[in-house]
Design goal:
Blueprint (H helix, E strand, L loop, with lengths): L2 H14 L5 H31 L5
Function: Essential subunit of the Sec protein translocation channel SecYEG. Clamps together the 2 halves of SecY. May contact the channel plug during translocation.
Keywords: Cell membrane, Membrane, Protein transport, Translocation, Transmembrane, Transmembrane helix, Transport
GO molecular function: protein transmembrane transporter activity
Length: 57
């Protein structure tokens, strides 16, 4: 592990990073929220199916 090389790589990445503007943040939030809702819906559907199967929860 070469610490000076690793540190310079981290600094280079931080220099390239920027704060998203309002539109970009809104779009990212909507996509992340939709993903969370989709995973929750999938879990709920699996729960409901397990309720109707014999030996379910």
């Amino acid at each position: 592990m070469n610490i000076p090389t690793d540190l310079s790589s981290y600094i280079r990445v931080l220099k390239l990073a920027s704060t998203p503007d309002r539109d970009e943040f809104t779009q990212i939030s909507l996509v992340a929220g939709a993903g969370i809702m989709l995973v929750g819906l999938l879990g709920f559907v699996i729960f409901v199916i397990m309720q109707f199967l014999p030996g379910g929860v």
